[in-house]
UniProtKB/TrEMBL annotation:
This is MoaD/ThiS family protein. InterPro entries: Beta-grasp_dom_sf, Mopterin_synth/thiamin_S_b, ThiS/MoaD-like. Pfam families: ThiS (PF02597). SUPFAM superfamilies: MoaD/ThiS. It comes from the Bacteria. It comes from Heliorestis convoluta.
Length: 74
């Protein structure tokens, strides 16, 4: 199945901004994080198709996964 993965802020460093990736059926968000070498606890906001989700969320063909790290500033 194909999933569009969008990375934001520091997650883009040495990776990509957005990329369509191929995964087997029954893939969960945590499986994508492992492939990207991103620890679960590094993710502040996780969206699947624009809705809040958790790392155990099962992905479907055509989903869009957006990953945001904690952001600071002032």
């Amino acid at each position: 199945m194909k999933v569009l993965v969008k990375l934001f802020a520091t997650f883009r460093d040495k990776r990509f901004i957005k990329q369509e990736m191929e995964f087997p059926e029954q893939t969960e968000v945590r499986d994508v994080l492992k492939v990207l070498d991103i620890a679960d606890e590094e993710v502040a906001i996780l969206l699947v198709n624009g809705r809040n989700a958790e790392v155990d969320h099962p992905l479907q063909d055509g989903d869009t996964l957006s990953l945001f790290p904690p952001v600071g500033g002032g």
